[in-house]
Amino acid sequence: MPQTKSTLSDAALRKLKPTGVRHEINDSVAVGLRARVSAEGRVTFILKAKDAANKLQTITLGAYPHMSLKEAREGANQARLNLKAGKDINQEKRQIRRAGAAESEEVTLRDLLGEFETRFASSKKTWAPRGPRSERSGARQVIERVYKELLDRRVVTITDEEFAHATTGYKRAKPKDGKLTANGQASRARGYLGPVLDWAAGRKIYAKIGASRLPRLGVVSLVTTHDPASDDPTIAGKRTRVLTEAELKAVLPYLVYPAPKVGSLRLEASRDYRPIAMRFLLFTAARLEEVCAMRWKHLDRLNKVWHKPSVKSTKGGSRSQNLPLSDAAMSILRGLPDWECAKPTDLVFPNATGERKLGNWTRYQKALHEVTSTNGWHRHDLRRTAATIMMSLKVPASTIEHILAHADPLKADNVGGSASHYLQLTRVLSNTRDPQEEALAVLGEALELIEFGAPVKRKQMAR
């Protein structure tokens, strides 16, 4: 194998390019340490040193950049001492791999779901515990319901045909609205389970070293299995539901605080923030998860701006949003009991305990449908309704897009990202009104006209 005389350094390692030829680079600091570069450019640290029997051994230390050069040098020095002491390092590694493989053979689907949930509960909302009375996540509950018969099987023995049969064969335990099939739920379970299996096998986004489960498992992929929602005409791929004026007139009086009595719900009115949270969602065209995650420290009361630390992004990395609020939206916040006494870290719309995010939406939504004689709409449809109202009132589509945070407005204008820090000062240093604030003010007046017959006249209140 070709060897080069170049000395290892972090700068040299970062600049390595694929050459089409496998070669090694010697290190001048740690004796015997080399960087083995594959034809494709992958770098692996190895040690070549003699053992106690004076036999040359090659020890694989780790891959760069998962293992740094400093760690490789330290590992090489320790491995060389172990070889001189008579240790068979490669044999020990083989035993560990065999033990890991044997252990992996015993991992059931239920075990794997628990591992994935523990690993990603803090970063993936669908894998976080659903509430104080349940330690399981929503994603895990759906998977366990659909793939119930496979949970205690060794996951490496389950075939894609068996996963497909469980997905397409899932039926409702109880009919809902006269429908026996549950293709929507089966589709969600399949969508949640796919990444779990990819993580276990080290596929797709989990292909990089350190991103997948270790040791990896030889599990199947769900790519070849059928999605039952794709040919179910009752499941819309994209929701287009918008509430009518009559429906808004029926619903808005119930979206207040304290919460009005709705159906058989027993939660104390002063502890139920779901109705007022839905009202705030409608008056800001925000996403439900953004409203539920809002904390008082995110609100700039002086300039009436809601800072969202993270908004959903379909492309690129995470980004934030500063949304100017209308007087109507600020009035909603001023009407909350914590307006004067809340701690910065407190949730604006907490659940009944006052410590966690709002939940149990399905039960409340069903009760709200019954009391308002409306049906077929979801919480997210309020956001779409708000956007539709603004569009019908001639608000520019670009302004609506900014409010909805579908894209970074600065990128659309080819402006550098750092400019956003300076543009925030325009509210203080100029007399121009933010187009988003104007749009949300128009939205608020329209909603109040629907609810009360005229926009609400507000008195100036201390901020």
For the record, the count of structural domains works out to 3
- Average pLDDT level: 84
Write the CATH architecture name of the largest domain: Orthogonal Bundle
The fourth-level CATH homologous superfamily of the largest domain is Intergrase catalytic core
Family: Belongs to the 'phage' integrase family.
Keywords: DNA integration, DNA recombination
GO biological process, one term: DNA integration
Organism: Fuscibacter oryzae
Describe the protein in words.
The chain is α+β, with helices and mostly antiparallel strands and 463 residues long. It has three domains: 3-87, Integrase, DNA-binding domain (Double Stranded RNA Binding Domain), CATH 3.30.160; 105-206; 245-452, Orthogonal Bundle (hpI Integrase, Chain A), CATH 1.10.443.10. The chain has helices at residues 10-14, 69-84, 89-105, 109-120, 138-146, 160-168, 183-201, 245-251, 274-284, 288-293, 327-334, 361-372, 379-392, 397-404, 409-412, 419-423, 426-429, 435-452; strands spanning 3-4, 23-26, 33-37, 43-50, 56-64, 129-131, 134-137, 171-176, 179-181, 299-300, 305-311, 319-324. The strands form four sheets. Strands 1-2-3-4-5 form a five-stranded mixed beta sheet, with helices on one face. It has a three-stranded antiparallel beta sheet with strand order 10-11-12. The longest helix is centred in the middle third of the chain and has 19 residues, at 183-201. This is Integrase family protein. Belongs to the 'phage' integrase family.
